[in-house]
Automatic annotation (TrEMBL):
<protein>
    <recommendedName>
        <fullName>GLPGLI family protein</fullName>
    </recommendedName>
</protein>
<feature type="signal peptide">
    <location>
        <begin position="1"/>
        <end position="18"/>
    </location>
</feature>
<keyword id="KW-0732">Signal</keyword>
Amino acid sequence: MKGAITILLFTISSYSFAQKAFEFEYYYGKTKNFEIKLSLANGYILGSEIIKTDLKTSRKIKYIPNDNPDRKSQSLMFLPDSTDRTVRRRKRDNIILYNMKDDYQVLPDKIRGVYGIDLGTFKFTLYKQKTTH
């Protein structure tokens, strides 16, 4: 019995000491109408997320990656978080980032993308934020 409890405690503690497989890097960009903050999960691109803030209303919407990144063109589409019921459903509402990789050896200083909503398309550039220690 004592051995079973020891094994159980060891198994539980090994999960708590597990190291994550990616690191977050942060990017920021701004246009006339909105700002975009990217949390880039370097090592697991599908763990990334974008927060888009409307500058007029201060409303924030979370975007998560589509399950199918386009490896050929290296573009990654983000869609509004489907669990957020406050987001108005539109014909088109997405953010596409270009030249994306799952794992970077050297992170880019800037990432280009487009925000598409209904019939409008807005280009933007995200800039890598300086890390402070």
